[in-house]
Amino acid sequence: MSESGDRAKLPPRWFIRTAWFAHRSLYRLTGGRLGLWRPKPGKWGTLRLSTIGRRTGMERAVMVGYFQDGPNFVTMAMNGWGEAEPAWWLNLQANPEAAIDLKGGRRTVTGRAAHGEERERLWAMWQQIDKNLDAYAALRPRETAVVVLEPSPSDNWNQQRSGAGSQRA
Q: What is the dihedral of CA 3, 7, 11, 14, to 10 degrees?
């Protein structure tokens, strides 16, 4: 429950899905200039996560909220706090290699669920951003996975960002 003890209130599912559609459309229509933002103290940012479909083998992309924990990017597999697991999380479990688009460029990452003390620590960090986190999580029939997106060893983001002749902004 939230600090006030109230049950979390979500907008209707159709509204959540429409907001997701509008966000993805804004990103696409502006060529990625709008729709992504970096996290600020006490706030989450957004990134575009591209996974490989576990059934189709085709790239699938979704916008997710995140914060950074050192070099890692942390999000939650919560599907708008709906009952079902998000497809991107099922895809990531089948093939953990993925890509993320951030304000400033693309990175390759490996996704995994946080467990134990790491999960507790990251959950507590999310609680600092969203005071109603536990109340929202209680709406789901299963534990919400805290997903860690670790930069892949082959990711050359740092070399591209600091190297001569970099094309990244």
A: 140
pLDDT digits (tens, 9 = 90+) for 80-98: 777 789 999 999 999 999 9
The pTM of the full predicted model, rounded to 2 decimals, is: 0.81
- CA atoms within 13 A of residue 41's CA, in its CB half-sphere: 0
Q: What is the mean predicted confidence (pLDDT) over 123-142? A: 90
Decide if 150 contacts 92 (C-beta within 8 A): no
DSSP reduced 3-state for 19: helix
Given a contact cutoff of 8 angstroms between Cβ atoms, the answer to whether 147 and 76 are in contact is yes
- In the chain, the number of structural domains is 1
Check which CATH number belongs to the domain holding 102 and give it. 2.30.110.10
Inside any domain, residue 58: yes
Q: Which of 58, 49, 54 is nearest to 20 (CA)?
A: 49
What pLDDT shows up at residue 7?
66
